[in-house]
Design brief:
Number of helices: 14
Distance between the termini: 40 Å
Shape: globular
Strand content: 15-25%
Structural class: alpha/beta
Largest sheet: 8 strands, mixed
Length: about 475
């Protein structure tokens, strides 16, 4: 039996803050006891870690990543090996990635392909959502089978006609199925049909620069799609999780639905909290680095997002990590913003950016852990195995220095991408040591993990449903 004790830190979970020692046995949390008490003094272990002056946190759960995703004639630049290693550097110990069903193919074929990409390559634990691109009778039956084996969430797109797009009828059928099988529909809520019209009109006017990507993907079209998805879910009697919410008008739709008592949930991402259309307008095509969908919004939208996070109308902050290198990938869209691969790197910086939000007074320390660890674990059936520090939980633990200062930069990050979306941003707080199931993967700012340590983690159904 392997035992580790972490002594002297401030243990922070979504519900509590306490100076406590943490005992780990065979990869799980065995006990916690207030520092300096006889109970803590009785902890004996093979290894002791000193967390004095540090926070002791549950490992982060990033419920929205896209490793190796094919998009726009290329692939996301992070593999499961490089992407999960970068996640570990940033204090994230579980990622939930998206397996993709291709049109005309089965869900099983898509899921098997993603298992093959990830197996033996991950530094931290992982699970899968399933992108449903082709709703038919066979697909609906497969949804039941996937829920039974721990793939309990299904993503649909109201955007990207001809690629991932589902029409309202297909969405309704999938929602009706999830109402029966306990699955959770995740929705990319943008009116893709209308957006495509605006894209073609902009290009015809010669508006080709990256900033036009944000101008054609209008906030009202995000809000309209969010409203429509909510009403379809209401008709189906199904829960709904809206991904990467970026617009104040979309937050208002979610708030209204939740005030009406509906099982509707929302996620936002660091890029919408810290970046804006100012970045999309950077000169010399540099704005291409910030092209993602939903797009970055004018800075005034950020207040609604922070308010939604504080008031629990938005429950989760994930990254939508989908990196493409500027050279050779983002550059595919020179002269036509619609050809810029959509996505930003971010899996490494989520925990640090949200700690900066604590420093800046946007959220409390416990809310930080709620939106980055506990809520995504509950939302996607991983709690209390993940997302908290309690007896029986996996020993996914982060020792965090709240006073260290760092400057985010492509020169120092570990994601496999040639730029940082936060280049030069100074933040307070830094991951020091990370344990995944009790095994050190980051040890005092050195990578001590390995590809293949990360284990596939089946999930139960959403734990928030009423």
């Amino acid at each position: 039996m392997s035992r580790t004790v972490i002594r002297g830190g401030l243990v922070i979970t979504a519900s509590d803050e306490i100076h406590a020692d943490v005992l780990i046995e065979d990869g799980r949390i065995a006990a916690l006891a207030a520092t300096g008490t006889p109970a803590a003094g009785a902890f004996t272990a093979d290894h002791a870690l000193d967390a004095t002056g540090r926070y002791v946190l549950p490992g982060g759960v990033d419920a929205h990543t896209h490793m190796e995703l094919p998009f726009g004639g290329t692939f996301a630049s992070d593999t499961f090996e490089t992407g999960t290693r970068a996640a570990a550097w940033g204090g994230t110990t579980t990622v939930v990635d998206f397996a993709v069903q291709s049109v005309g193919r089965s869900l099983r074929e898509g899921l098997d392909a993603w298992h093959a990409k990830a197996e033996g390559n991950c530094a931290v634990d992982y699970g899968f959502h399933m992108i449903v691109s082709d709703v038919n009778d066979d697909t609906l039956k497969e949804m039941d089978l996937l829920v039974d084996e721990g793939v309990t969430s299904f993503k649909q797109f109201m955007a990207y006609p001809g690629v991932f797009y589902s029409d309202d009828g297909q969405i309704l059928r999938a929602m009706q199925r999830s109402a029966d099988n306990g699955g959770l529909i995740m929705m990319h809520a943008e009116n893709g049909i209308a957006i495509d019209v605006l894209v073609q009109q902009a290009l015809a006017r010669g508006e080709t620069d990256p900033r036009h990507h944000g101008e054609v993907r209008k906030a009202l079209l995000e809000a309209e799609a969010t409203h429509r998805a909510i009403r379809l879910a209401q008709v189906a009697g199904a829960p709904l999780y809206v991904v990467h919410v970026s617009a104040a008008e979309a937050v208002a739709e979610l708030t209204r639905a939740r005030d009406d008592g509906l099982n509707v949930f929302g996620e936002t991402c660091p890029q919408y909290l810290f970046l804006s259309t100012d970045n999309l307008a950077e000169p010399e095509f540099a704005g291409a680095k910030y092209v993602c969908s939903t797009p970055l919004r004018p800075r005034e939208h950020q207040a609604s997002l922070w308010r939604g996070l504080r008031g629990n109308d938005l429950q989760v902050v994930s990254t939508d990590h989908c990196p493409f290198c500027f050279v050779g990938q983002k550059e595919l869209g020179r002269g036509d913003f619609s050809k810029i691969p959509n996505g930003l790197p971010g899996v490494e910086h989520r925990m640090d950016l949200l700690h900066q939000a604590v420093v800046d007074g946007h959220i409390s320390r416990r809310r930080w852990i709620e939106i980055a660890c506990a809520a995504p674990a509950r939302m996607f059936g991983l709690y209390p195995k993940k997302g908290t520090l309690a007896p029986g939980a996996d020993a996914d633990v982060v020792i965090y220095d709240p006073h260290a200062e760092q400057v985010l930069s492509a020169e120092t990050h570990h994601m496999n991408v040639d730029y940082s979306a936060y280049e030069g941003k100074r933040v307070t707080g830094r991951v020091e040591t990370v344990l995944s199931r009790g095994v050190p993967v980051i040890t005092e700012r050195e990578y001590t993990g390995r590809a293949g340590h990360g284990a596939y983690t089946p999930r139960s159904t959403c734990q928030y449903l009423t």
